[in-house]
Amino acid sequence: MDIQNAQLIVDNWIKEHGVRYFNELTNMAQLTEEVGEVARIIARRYGEQSEKESDKGKDLGEELADVLFVVLCLANQTNVDLQEAFNKRMEKKAKRDHDRHHNNDKLK
């Protein structure tokens, strides 16, 4: 699935199930909350913190999907074509970072 299709799926879901989009500030707060949930899993599962019993059943993929859902909501409600923006960003990163990363001794 491409990003444009994902944006359309989210928009259709909002219209069918969500009544309307939350406002941009609410969605930004929700995005921060969802990223925090991802951070908690990463810190406890892959970092040095011990994982609480209540966190062991959490699915990292589902939490990342929650982040993606809110990002797609924000893109839709602010009229951002995320596919176009992503393509431009990848092109810029490829030009800017190719040699930089290959010449980074920390990555060898």
Automatic annotation (TrEMBL):
Write down the Pfam families for this protein, in alphabetical order.
MazG
Q: Which InterPro entries match?
A: MazG-like_dom (IPR004518), MazG-related_YpjD (IPR012359), YpjD/YvdC (IPR047046)
Q: Taxonomically, which superkingdom? A: Bacteria
Give start and end of each NTP pyrophosphohydrolase MazG-like domain. Answer: 23-100
PANTHER family xrefs: NUCLEOTIDE PYROPHOSPHOHYDROLASE
Name of the protein in question: Nucleotide pyrophosphohydrolase
Which source organism does the UniProt entry give?
Answer: Gilvirhabdus luticola
